[in-house]
Design a protein that fits this description.
The chain has about 450 residues and is α/β, with parallel strands linked by helices. The chain is about 30% helix and about 25% strand. The chain has four domains: about 1-65, Roll (Ubiquitin-like (UB roll)); about 75-225 and about 410-425, Nucleotidyltransferase, domain 5; about 230-265 and about 355-410 and about 435-450, 2-Layer Sandwich (Nucleotidyltransferase, domain 5); about 270-355, no CATH class. Helix 6 (about 220-230) packs across helix 10. The radius of gyration is 21 Å and the shape is globular.
Amino acid sequence: MIRVTFLPDGERVRVEEGTTLREAAIKAGFLNCKGDNCNSCWSLFEIGGEYKPGCTFELREDVIVNLNSRGENWKGENISEVTKIALDIGTTTITAAFFDESGEKIGSEVVINPQIAYGSDVVSRIEAINRDANLLAKMRSKLLKEVNQLIEKRHLEKVEEIGIAGNPCMEHILLGVSPSGIGGYPYEPEFKNAAQMNAREVGIDAGCEVFILPLISGWVGGDTVAMILSTGIHRSEEKVMGIDLGTNGEIVFGSKDGIITTSTAAGPAFEGVGITYGMPATDGAIENVRINEKGEVRVKIKGGKKAKGICGSGILDSIAEMLKREIMDTSGRMKWRAFHIHDGIYITQKDVRKVQLAKSAISTGVEMLKRELDLGAVKRTIVTGSFGNASAESLSVIGISGALFKKDAVIEGIKRALFGEKREAERIARESRWINLASHPSFSDGFMKNLGF
């Protein structure tokens, strides 16, 4: 029998030789998986400094497996001056930013959301909870453990308040509230209002207050409220489109005259999940790609370290460059089954197809929002998301033309709430409208039409 130890929890299981990582993780209680070789867990398992696919990697000897270790190295100093923390709890990653009393950012860190073991998207996690109600407590426990580790290892003594935003499912799980109502019609959350609580009431080991941003609907959450707050869409004189290229694909349209929101099931491809060599936009990720006329590839690696994988912006760049150099046609068909990017990291035909699904969901949502509501011309488009550093050229490939990429828009919105704009965040959530376009009869037709590049 082989002994498998999972860190950081220290859980040990014994399995037969030849057992896959996936099977061992399920036995240890760390994974909720259908076993369809989707690559969603590729960013989950690290053995000896290398990341292994759960479905295909077979265990032959005693091994230590690191879970969720692909966090971004701490960037910052003067940690003793931190008074406020902003937490963006995404489906795939958790981003923490630390601020002093003047609002200056002292540092930041990104880690994997450990809930990814229970599904790569919110629907999978809701379904898992519906099948086994005990998983709600397990998901919450893992999330809080990661959040507490982010805070505890900094030895923070002056923290006065923590601001938290996430999609509705993430905020529900954080508070130990079942998200089941979000998973089916009429998609109603158990709560929408903002919450001001003591940190220990939430489960965070800190002697401070916590502000949790309000939800707009069951599918548009506090992270979108934060994005609206930071970009100023709600105060704009002109019509602005805001797009969060995340798993839920939130789309915002509005101005000072009102905000309309929707969401589309884009899936986690833009965040690197389910991509063969995909990973979140943390150190070691290929975040930019260029291919010259000779077919030579140049890459930029986040953190300047050895490449471990490729994040969303690198994937979008790769697709844009392959189109430009006719390595791929507009239907998404590649000349070869895979194209080498850098140091053993490839983009495969399967990867391109997954990006097409995500791209089509976003494009169709944007088109329908404009058409169904007769919204007229959009003067500005702002794109955000936890997927790296996207260029306007690469965004145009997925049907988002003339867009400005705003990094860390959610974190900036949480910060604004912490530094005096809580009531404004509540007003945004209260006055914004949500429209369910995904169930519209013409959505599937538009989706098929927009699959191409």
